[in-house]
Amino acid sequence: MGLEAVLPADGFLTTQLRKVVNWSRRSSLWPMPFATACCGIELMATASSRYDLARFGAEVMRFSPRQSDLMIVAGRVSIKMLPVLQRIYLQMTEPKWVISMGACASTGGVFDNYAVVQGIDQFIPVDVYVPGCPPRPETLIEGIMAIQRIIDQDGLPPAGKRRPLQIAIEPTYNVRPQPVPLTVGHT
Predict the structure, then answer these.
(1) Bond into 134 cis (ω within 30)
(2) 95: cis peptide before it, omega within 30°?
(3) What distance in Å separates the CA atoms of residue 56 and residue 177, rounded to the nearest whole number?
(4) With a cut of 70, which residues of the chain have pLDDT below it?
(5) How far apart are CA 187 and CA 183, in angstroms?
(6) Rounded mean pLDDT of the chain?
(7) Boundaries of every domain in the chain
(8) What is the pLDDT of residue 73?
(9) Considering the entire predicted model, what is its pTM?
(10) How far is CA 42 from CA 24, 84, 104, in A?
(11) Can you spell out the DSSP letters for 13-69?
């Protein structure tokens, strides 16, 4: 009751190998979460039934770098965590992509001190920046969809290292006003 009904009995279907490979890669992203702070809670929320990351083929969170191809760095990264982050990135399979989620992972956020890395892009290549403190689950899903668009436009996996694309996602939601007016002091 699907494709068989459309094709004649002696018919066949043709397509380009690149399109089939890219379709299978984009529809089966396996994220490697590196969540260290409040952005990790928003990352977990994307897998819940309300946001349903499974719709995009990225519901299989892998905690083994050799089984994942998308690293999501969510939250602040300290200097002591940096070697672990780099080791995990190097162990991931090619082709691989990186999402920097939140202000802390992208720029250090409010932690402008010696112990926090002021942007992970100084140490590993980042493909998509998801802004916010913390970013909403919808914004992370926009970032994953940006990775999927990148995969659709790519050819077959390159033989060498791929250059990071460094795309920044624009928030697509509007902040609603407070339900009760905020007053300061006594009236």
Answers:
(1) yes
(2) yes
(3) 31
(4) 1-15, 155-187
(5) 9
(6) 79
(7) 14-168
(8) 92
(9) 0.75
(10) 27, 22, 14
(11) ----HHHHHHHHHHTT--EEEEE-SHHHHHHHHHTSTTT-GGGGT-----SSGGG-S
